[in-house]
């Protein structure tokens, strides 16, 4: 193994690629683990959730190695790993999950009860998620490998499709989960809030689930133009604060069957100012009676940069009575990636879901990660994929 390098959160607004420790088969508390593997990272992506930390909108401490979207090759395994081999190409769910607790056994791997002493749920390279080192690096450790890892069956095919398969670690299952929990099915009219990568993944998921119309709302004109280019109906939220009326111009009705929040807690209102609950309140307005709302967008328990004291503690001013009166269903929380990633892998391998083109994936080197973060933060209509060893460039 050559020297490890990783993307490190330095402070609000700044990341650096630094030398970091080589991975070991150890848990964050230093215990030796034999159920884990060490991966040579083939691809690892910059996520909007990472941006929340980098903007200083969480309690993340400087020095955190970032990255929870990981695909790699096994180069070392513990003696308890029985179903995977050195040389296997694997997709890593962003959830760290033990596979043995009550929630893991019910496929609710986003809230594993054992991998994080602070709360339910673990993840790589993320604040308050158990201390697992992130994978925006050349090498990374993955615990509970037999349970967590999805083997991609054919190496050559995997490398040829890696721009798509890299999305299996988070944004594609997250978008799909949002669409499923929003009740999307054949003939559905769907509204997606946010034309970033997760919103586009949710829109693509709605389409493959049979939606008749998929509408995407955003303020970012470049992202809206890309959404239109890949076949979705864009709504420019800067044009009006009457979302229902803009939807009616597309469908003839000011209500939708299903709504998906792919924005989260840094939502902004029509005036451009931050309004943390605006998306959720809009969704209750535009979703029909007995409709469903999926909320894969991130909401946090602590937001130091929030606009008011309540939001700093994760308390939002929701018009919940409206949702109750309309008998709507809401579903929130970390996506249990393992529930969906195998099916979505098959859809990619058999050319049913060209997700890299839909989210406008752009491959850059690991050493260029800081520039990728900066461009993404400015609203670039792209999904940045890091190529730590240059293998994606070779495959292309």
Question: Roughly what percent helix?
Answer: 25-40%
Based on CA inertia axes, which overall geometry fits? globular
- Which fold does the CATH topology of the largest domain refer to? Quinone Oxidoreductase, Chain A, domain 1
Regarding quaternary structure, how should these chains be classified? single chain
Q: So, the CATH homologous superfamily of the largest domain?
A: Medium-chain alcohol dehydrogenases, catalytic domain
Task: Please state the CA-atom Rg, rounded to the nearest Å.
Answer: 20 Å
Q: How many extended strands?
A: 17
Structural class: alpha/beta
What proportion strand? 15-25%
Give the second-level CATH assignment, the architecture of the largest domain.
Alpha-Beta Complex
- Number of H- or I-type helical stretches: 16
Largest sheet: 7 strands, mixed
Mean pLDDT: 96
**Termini distance?**
24 Å
Low-confidence stretches: none
Number of separate domains:
2
The CATH C-level name of the largest domain is: Alpha Beta
Summarize the structure.
The protein is α/β, with parallel strands linked by helices. It has helices at 48-54, 102-105, 145-148, 155-160, 162-165, 171-181, 197-208, 221-229, 243-251, 278-286, 309-312, 320-325, 341-349, 355-358, 369-377, 391-395; strands at residues 5-11, 14-19, 37-45, 70-77, 89-92, 95-96, 122-123, 139-142, 150-151, 189-193, 213-218, 233-236, 256-261, 287-295, 329-332, 361-365, 383-387.
Written description of the protein model:
This protein has 396 residues and is of the alpha/beta class. The protein folds into 2 domains: 5-170 and 336-395, Quinone Oxidoreductase, Chain A, domain 1; 171-332, 3-Layer(aba) Sandwich (Rossmann fold), CATH 3.40.50. Helix content is 28%, strand content 22%. The protein contains 16 helices and 17 strands. The protein has helices spanning 48-54, 102-105, 145-148, 155-160, 162-165, 171-181, 197-208, 221-229, 243-251, 278-286, 309-312, 320-325, 341-349, 355-358, 369-377, 391-395; strands at 5-11, 14-19, 37-45, 70-77, 89-92, 95-96, 122-123, 139-142, 150-151, 189-193, 213-218, 233-236, 256-261, 287-295, 329-332, 361-365, 383-387. The strands form 4 sheets. Strands 3, 4, 5, 8, 9, 16 and 17 form a 7-stranded mixed beta sheet that branches. A 6-stranded parallel beta sheet has the order 12-11-10-13-14-15, sandwiched between helices. β16, α15 and β17 (383-387) form a beta-alpha-beta unit. The two termini are 24 Å apart. 53% of the residues are buried.
């Amino acid at each position: 193994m050559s020297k490890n390098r990783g993307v490190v959160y330095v402070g609000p607004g700044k990341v650096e690629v630094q030398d970091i420790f080589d991975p070991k088969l150890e848990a964050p508390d230093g215990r030796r683990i034999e159920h884990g593997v060490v991966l040579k990272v083939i691809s690892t992506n910059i996520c909007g959730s990472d941006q929340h930390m980098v903007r200083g909108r969480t309690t993340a401490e400087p020095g955190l190695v970032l990255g929870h979207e990981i695909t790699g090759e096994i180069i070392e395994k513990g003696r308890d790993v029985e179903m995977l081999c050195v040389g296997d190409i694997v997709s890593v769910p962003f959830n760290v999950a033990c596979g043995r607790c009550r929630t893991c056994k019910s496929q609710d791997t986003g809230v594993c009860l054992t991998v994080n002493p602070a709360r339910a749920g673990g993840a790589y390279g993320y604040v308050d998620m158990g201390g697992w080192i992130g994978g925006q690096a050349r090498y990374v450790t993955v615990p509970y490998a037999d349970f967590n890892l999805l083997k991609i069956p054919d190496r050559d095919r995997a490398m040829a499709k890696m721009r798509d398969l890299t999305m299996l670690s988070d944004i594609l299952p997250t978008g799909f989960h949002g669409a499923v929990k929003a009740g999307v099915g054949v003939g559905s009219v769907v509204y997606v809030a946010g034309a970033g990568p997760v919103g586009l993944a949710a829109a693509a998921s709605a389409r493959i689930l049979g939606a008749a119309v998929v509408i995407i709302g955003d303020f970012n004109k470049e992202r809206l133009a890309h959404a239109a280019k890949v076949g979705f109906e864009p709504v420019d939220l800067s044009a009006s604060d009457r979302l229902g009326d803009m939807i009616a111009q597309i469908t003839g009705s000011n209500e939708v069957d299903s709504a998906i929040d792919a924005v989260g807690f840094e939502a902004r209102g029509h005036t451009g100012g931050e309004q943390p609950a605006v998306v959720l309140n809009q969704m209750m307005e535009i979703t029909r009676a007995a409709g469903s709302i999926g909320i894969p967008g991130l909401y946090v328990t602590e937001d130091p940069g929030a606009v008011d004291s309540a939001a700093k503690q994760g308390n939002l001013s929701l018009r919940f009575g409206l949702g109750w009166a309309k008998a709507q269903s809401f579903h929130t929380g970390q996506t249990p990636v393992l529930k969906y990633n195998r099916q979505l892998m098959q859809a990619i391998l058999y050319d049913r879901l060209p997700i890299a083109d839909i989210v406008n994936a752009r491959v850059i080197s690991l050493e260029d990660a800081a520039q990728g973060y900066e461009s993404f933060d400015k609203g670039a209509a792209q999904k940045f994929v890091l190529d730590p060893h240059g293998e994606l460039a070779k495959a292309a």
